[in-house]
Amino acid sequence: MDWSRYNNFKEVEFRCSHCNASGMKPEFMERLQILREAYGKPMRITSGYRCPKHPIEARKATPGAHASGLAADIAVVGADAHQLLRLAFAQGFTGIGVQQKGEGRFIHLDTMTGPIRPNVWSY
């Protein structure tokens, strides 16, 4: 994948924290880059690609959007979280998870599709 196409992101931000693999899909990164440009502020990625053996993915019956290279978690709080959510809906992200309580606040964004999955959820 040509990471130079994503001016506001670096491959290292998205590497699996378990095995250091890089598995992000270009179609997701293109949408994320468009979102970043609309947002106009830095976006700190707290989780990008996760290999199927990553502890979080290994607990699941089927690896999820992160293991498919179609998801990222972004550290964001308060009014910035609200702004990012509005823009994410406008950009057509199909999965949006919101963790806005306690420590480690973030927004999960993905572009997975499928008949049985929530479009918006909270943690």
Q: What topology does this entry show?
A:
Elements: H1 11-14, H2 26-39, E1 44-47, H3 55-58, E2 71-75, H4 78-91, E3 95-99, E4 106-110, E5 120-122
Parallel strand pairs: 3-5
Antiparallel strand pairs: 1-2, 2-4, 3-4
Tags for this entry?
Muramoyl-pentapeptide Carboxypeptidase, domain 2, 4 helices, 5-stranded mixed sheet, 123 residues, single chain, globular, alpha+beta
Structure description:
- This protein has a single domain, classed as Muramoyl-pentapeptide Carboxypeptidase, domain 2 (2-Layer Sandwich), CATH 3.30.1380.10.
- It has 123 residues and is α+β, with helices and mostly antiparallel strands.
- Helix content is 29%, strand content 18%.
- A 5-stranded mixed beta sheet has the order 1-2-4-3-5, with helices on one face.
Strand element count: 5
Q: Which CATH class is shown?
A: Alpha Beta
* Helical stretch tally: 4
Number of domains: 1
What's the helical proportion of residues?
A: 25-40%
Query: How would a crystallographer describe the biggest sheet?
Result: 5 strands, mixed
N- and C-termini, Cα separation: 31 Å
What's the average pLDDT? 95
Summarize the helix and strand pattern as letters. HHEHEHEEE
Q: What's the shape?
A: globular
Q: Which residues form runs of ≥5 with pLDDT under 50? A: none
State the CATH architecture.
Answer: 2-Layer Sandwich
CATH-assigned fold name: Muramoyl-pentapeptide Carboxypeptidase, domain 2
Enumerate the strands of the largest sheet in spatial order, edge to edge or round the barrel. 1-2-4-3-5
- Oligomer classification: single chain
Tell me the radius of gyration.
14 Å
